[in-house]
């Protein structure tokens, strides 16, 4: 019995890691197709049917390019920077619940690589470490444009992590837990008689708006891609990188987009829960499978949203970026915490 549970858990961990890399790989293909659609072009269509082998062709090209290390650069830190970015990006998906539970031989096994009761803190800690990869790579390049890009990335991440953290505190007041699995389970409860619809977006719409804006800034995506702004900094922190160093930085960005989309779907949009999930009388494992499909549908929508915004909105100036973070989002997030706490106290005082 225990060996079966161990084997299933090992398969879940491998599946989570594999699916994360696969989605990040084909996000590069999807991004080109979305950009082509918005700009009225065809997009990649030469490598394989419908251009589906384009990500593999890109990977082969990057792998066989010459790895160039600039003169007077710190070689160890130059290699460590992109490696650290990639490592932290892959670690974040470990605590996300990708489904309910599987029933095998009378035992329930959660569809989650690692179940910890501080899941949201784990993600924040790992994501915060990611900026060290950018900072180390930018500093080790011995190039002023790389260093300026790295400093921009660090200041941008610190500024927007404050507002993101405050938006999460309001959510913690509502859910009373730090566990992502428990948050997802709570959202499976009925709302207005519909099971699986007790989503946090109905209780924290402002918190979600702050969170998604900060997620764009944390992943360095347009309109917040100032650390790699080509009109001012050539290529920013990865100016001197080529071959797999460049590839790891680009790949880490797409892994971060996938993780941010999965976290938003889990925190605010019910995670693996979907309407009427417990009212259809389906077997437990079928409901779990449908829940996983529903979660990936939500994740793909958010990934598409990241791409849509990139090819639609212009880039902010750096002073506008800082003003938005410090003068608008942080005060709004603090007000959101105060209002949420006041409503909870009022409800406890007069309705319980």
UniProtKB/TrEMBL annotation:
Domain of life from the UniProt record: Bacteria
Subcellular location, principal: membrane
Catalysed transformations (reactions): a quinone + NADH + 5 H(+)(in) = a quinol + NAD(+) + 4 H(+)(out)
Location within or outside the cell: Cell membrane; Membrane
TM helices/strands, residue ranges: 6-26, 76-104, 116-140, 160-180, 201-218, 254-274, 286-308, 328-346
The enzyme's E.C. designation: 7.1.1.-
NCBIfam families per UniProt: PRK06076.1-2 (NF004741)
Function: NDH-1 shuttles electrons from NADH, via FMN and iron-sulfur (Fe-S) centers, to quinones in the respiratory chain. The immediate electron acceptor for the enzyme in this species is believed to be ubiquinone. Couples the redox reaction to proton translocation (for every two electrons transferred, four hydrogen ions are translocated across the cytoplasmic membrane), and thus conserves the redox energy in a proton gradient. This subunit may bind ubiquinone.
Name of the molecule in the record: NADH-quinone oxidoreductase subunit H
Species, as recorded: Nibribacter koreensis
Gene it is expressed from: nuoH_2
């Amino acid at each position: 019995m225990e060996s079966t549970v161990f084997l299933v858990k090992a398969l879940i961990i491998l599946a989570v890691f594999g699916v994360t890399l696969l989605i990040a790989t084909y996000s590069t293909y999807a991004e080109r197709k979305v950009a082509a659609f918005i700009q009225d072009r065809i997009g990649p269509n030469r490598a394989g049917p419908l251009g589906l082998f384009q990500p593999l062709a890109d990977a082969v090209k990057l792998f066989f390019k010459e790895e160039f290390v600039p003169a007077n650069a710190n070689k160890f830190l130059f290699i460590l920077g992109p490696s650290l970015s990639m490592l932290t990006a892959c670690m974040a998906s470990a605590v996300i619940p990708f489904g309910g539970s599987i029933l095998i031989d009378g035992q329930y096994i959660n569809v989650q690589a690692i179940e910890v009761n501080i899941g949201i803190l784990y993600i924040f800690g790992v994501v915060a470490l990611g900026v060290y990869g950018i900072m180390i790579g930018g500093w080790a390049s011995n190039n002023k444009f790389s260093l300026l890009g790295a400093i921009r990335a660090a200041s941008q991440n610190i500024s927007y992590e404050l507002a993101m953290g405050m938006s999460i505190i309001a959510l913690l007041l509502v859910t009373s837990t730090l566990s992502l699995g428990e948050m997802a389970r709570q959202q499976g409860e009925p709302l207005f008689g519909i099971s699986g619809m007790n989503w946090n977006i109905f209780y924290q719409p402002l918190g979600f708006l702050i969170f998604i804006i900060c997620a764009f800034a944390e992943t360095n995506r347009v309109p917040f891609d100032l650390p790699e702004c080509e009109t001012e900094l050539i290529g920013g922190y990865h100016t001197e990188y080529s071959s797999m160093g460049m590839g790891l930085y680009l790949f880490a960005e797409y892994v971060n987009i996938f993780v941010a989309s999965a976290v938003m779907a889990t925190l605010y949009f019910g995670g693996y829960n979907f309407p009427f999930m417990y009212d259809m009388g389906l077997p437990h494992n079928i409901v779990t499978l449908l829940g996983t499909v529903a979660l990936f549908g939500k994740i793909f929508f958010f990934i598409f949203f990241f791409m849509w915004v990139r090819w639609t909105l212009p880039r902010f100036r750096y002073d506008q970026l800082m003003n938005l973070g410090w003068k608008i989002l942080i005060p709004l997030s603090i007000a959101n915490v105060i209002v949420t706490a006041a409503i909870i106290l009022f409800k406890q005082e007069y309705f319980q």
